[in-house]
Design brief:
- It is a single chain.
- By secondary structure, this protein is of the alpha/beta class.
- The chain has one domain (about 5-280): Rossmann fold.
- The chain has helices at about 15-30, 55-60, 65-70, 75-85, 100-105, 120-130, 145-150, 170-185, 205-215, 250-265, and strands at about 35-40, 45-50, 95-100, 115, 140, 160-165, 190-200, 220-225, 240-245, 275-280.
């Protein structure tokens, strides 16, 4: 299925959590002089308008990034993330929201590289346009990232951050994630893998996380944030999470400090909450 367009959801609470954590992971990867690769299996369009088009239909960003930009006295890690988003806008206006490829591009050094996969033809075209001035540092392919990532593992520098962020429109995506991670770890066990997933009243997300935990990797971190109680009808997303294999050792402490603030800012009712669980060798 290729009906999903992330532009409808750009800048929402799930994007905020995902891109905030992605930034923390990439900043840690930069602390070593040795270059690394950023690989995005479902890259999307790269940049999204919040002033017109799809994003204006549901204005999900108003309960996401807009709340964060309006906040004051944020902890430094959150304020640094806000500053990055503001750098893509003029003054206090919020008209553009960068997707994960742009978030990563902002942070990469000259010797680091990006490999971006996007299968949707319209989003692939937009992604290519958004990176048309990019150097050889970036390679974009109109491919299924689940399968195509194999060609790039292990990457030449033996260091990489991989973001896996499928739309999960197809229920099979949950199992595709698990199989891709199994195969990727055989090729490149030391990579950092970030898997985004929705919190739903369905079993598939929980089953996927259970399967990932049963891979018996010694180092992982799982962070979840719910914004409101599940709907009485049983539909819709009430939060999201990230399961990270081989996370930075500093990540747990930063999230323990900042997740209470982020959750309080984005909460839509009194049931809003967060959890951060991890396992280290």
């Amino acid at each position: 299925m290729l009906s999903y367009r992330h532009a409808f959801h750009a800048g929402n609470h799930a994007d905020v959590l995902k891109h905030y954590v992605l930034r923390l992971v990439l900043e840690y990867a930069k602390q070593k002089d040795k270059p690394f690769w950023y690989i995005d299996t479902h890259a999307g369009a790269g940049m999204y308008s919040l002033a017109q088009g799809y994003a204006m239909q549901n204005t999900e960003f108003e309960n996401g990034i807009a709340k964060l930009l309006a906040a004051r006295n944020l902890p430094v890690p959150l304020s640094d993330f806000v500053a990055q988003i503001q750098n893509h806008n003029m003054g206090d206006a919020l008209k553009l929201y960068p997707g994960s490829p742009i978030i990563a591009q902002d942070l990469l050094r000259a010797d680091d590289k990006m490999r971006l996969f996007e299968l949707h033809p319209n989003d692939f075209k937009l992604l290519s346009e958004n990176f048309k001035k990019a150097s050889r540092q970036v390679k974009i392919e109109m491919q299924n990232g689940f399968a195509s990532i194999k060609a790039y593992l292990p990457p030449p520098p033996r260091r990489a951050v991989v973001l896996i962020d499928p739309p999960y429109e197809d229920k099979q995506d949950y199992q595709h994630v698990v199989e891709m991670i199994k195969n990727s770890l055989k090729r490149f066990a030391s990579g950092t893998y970030i898997i985004w997933y929705p919190l739903l009243q369905r079993l598939e997300p929980r089953d996927m996380i259970g399967d990932l935990m049963h891979l018996n990797k010694p180092n992982w971190l799982n962070v979840e944030m719910t914004l409101h109680a599940p709907s009485a009808e049983g539909f819709g997303m009430h939060g999201s999470g990230l399961f990270i294999i081989n996370p930075p050792w500093t990540l747990q402490a930063i999230l323990d400090e900042t997740m209470p603030v982020l959750t309080q800012l984005l909460a839509l009712d009194e049931t809003a909450s967060y959890t951060v669980n991890s396992q280290t060798s």
